[in-house]
């Protein structure tokens, strides 16, 4: 598995966990929604950035 795939799967699992916390009533929906958006944005940023010049960097 590539680094991009690992980041995407990790971000997706974090988002699912946040949604479960909202559903259980542990998290405020607005705050949880912002967290989901933030995690998605970070994952998108890392996968977009690592496709080019950052390929050899570990």
Helix percentage range? over 70%
Spans with pLDDT under 50 lasting ≥5 residues? none
According to DSSP, the number of beta strands is 0
Using only C-alpha atoms, the radius of gyration works out to 14 Å
Q: Sheet bearing the most strands, described?
A: none
Share in β-strands = under 5%
| Count of alpha and pi helical runs | 2
- Shape estimate: elongated
Q: How many separate domains make up the residues?
A: 1
Structural class: mainly alpha
- Mean of the pLDDT scores? 85
Please trace the helix and strand order, writing H or E for each element: HH
User: What is the CA-CA span between the terminal residues?
Assistant: 15 Å
Describe the structure.
The protein has 58 residues and is mainly α. It has one domain (3-49). It has helices at residues 3-24, 29-49. Helix 1 runs antiparallel to helix 2 (29-49). The model has no long low-confidence stretch (mean pLDDT 85). The chain crosses the membrane at residues 7-26, 32-48. Keywords: Membrane, Transmembrane, Transmembrane helix.
């Amino acid at each position: 598995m590539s680094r991009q795939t690992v980041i995407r799967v990790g971000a997706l699992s974090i988002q699912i966990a946040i949604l479960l916390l909202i559903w259980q009533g542990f998290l405020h929906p607005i705050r949880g929604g912002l967290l989901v958006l933030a995690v998605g944005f970070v994952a998108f940023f890392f996968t977009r950035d690592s496709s080019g010049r950052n390929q050899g960097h570990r």
